[in-house]
């Protein structure tokens, strides 16, 4: 049985978060290919010029110039229906979670801390993608913003 490769476009302005996610994907030892974009504008260019549409978008919320919400809104009429958009944030503020839901995000995952938790997240993300399930539960209405 051959494993399917998951192609992710990860959009995050934080260089450390981009590097860390790629490292965790390698450590998970699964067929995951991550392409990074450091802004919403760069993500739009990559989506327009990519030879293959990614299987999933991992989208940070708080970015300068074009927030994750702005990008999600821009994608709504195009790729949004074809590609699962997973919000990937440190914030579980109810207003952020509800806005993501209202804009049609498929899931909302809180960023894990530490390499081991990030590796577990990548495994969960891959397995959920294979089974066409949500990779994480939507955060509750508790409201805790970690950054």
Please, could you describe this protein's structure?
There is one protein chain. This protein is an alpha/beta fold. It has a single domain, classed as Rossmann fold (3-Layer(aba) Sandwich). The protein has helices spanning 15-27, 40-49, 68-75, 94-102, 115-131; strands at residues 6-11, 32-37, 56-59, 85-89, 107-110. It has a 5-stranded parallel beta sheet, sandwiched between helices. Helix 3 links the parallel strand 3 (56-59) and strand 4 (85-89). Helix 1 packs across helix 5. The chain is globular, with a radius of gyration of 14 Å.
List the helices and strands and how they pair.
Blueprint: E1 6-11, H1 15-27, E2 32-37, H2 40-49, E3 56-59, H3 68-75, E4 85-89, H4 94-102, E5 107-110, H5 115-131
Parallel strand pairs: 1-2, 1-3, 3-4, 4-5
Helix pairs in contact: 1-5
Strand portion, in percent? 15-25%
- The strand line-up of the biggest sheet is 2-1-3-4-5
CA-based shape: globular
The helicity comes to: 25-40%
Which class do the helix and strand fractions yield? Answer: alpha/beta
Q: How does CATH name the architecture?
A: 3-Layer(aba) Sandwich
Named CATH topology? Rossmann fold
Question: What can be said about this structure in brief?
Answer:
It is built from five helices and five strands.
